[in-house]
Amino acid sequence: MMHTRSEPAEREPDTSARPPLVRELLLVAGLFLVYKLGRQAANGHVEEAFRNARGVWDFERAAGLPGEGEVQAVLLHSHTLVEAANTYYAAVHFPATVAFLVWLYLRRPGHYVWARRNLTAITGAALALHLLFPLAPPRLLHATGLVDTAQVYGPSVYANTPTTDSMANQFAAMPSLHFGWSLMVAVGLIVATRSRWRYLWLLHPALTLLVVVGTANHYWLDAIVVSALLALALAALRLPAARVPEHPRWPAVVPVQRRTSPAYARSGGQR
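The structure corresponding to this sequence follows.
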């Protein structure tokens, strides 16, 4: 007889990687508060923001990037379409990211910490850029000829007068966290799941990119820069290897040869 080796143990979710809930809530809330206060601290550089905007616009044209107006022209063909784009910009960005983190925390705790660190890294880098490089969005730069779709068609999350907006810094277009967070959501879900359809999550950042550009809230370069920041974060903050739980295994057993007497062997096994 021959005993076969047992099949390797299947990998199981490492629930020990899930950090304490209260600590995570306080941490995420604290990071969000610091970011909001930081954006407000970057406010007020109006002349520099418009000067940088003109430079970005000219650089994109010199680099041969397509005009943001080409995307907006598609949206403006339909009142319903442009309103849907404005709603997507206003309502999907933050809730989708929160839902992503909650799902990872509950179902993929090892991936959750990795994703939260990457989101924190690109958000911190974005805040630094907002302080160092204030940038007016294309909807505020007359040279672009673009329409502020949120103000014209609604809904809008910004005040009518950017310089007096106490709720948001409208001169923090570089980089686009709308796109950066959506890209991280897609990458995180692709890595954390095994469905053959998981690459369809890339539709989220693709749609977000068309929305932020078509509504004239961001330049192409804003998305390019945040993509580079995310690539650096992903390279530096690698996903920890999943631990395989230890299970008892049957020891390997070699074939056992039947012992025979010399007389039996000489007879060739014939009785």
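Residues 109-132 form the longest helix (24 residues).
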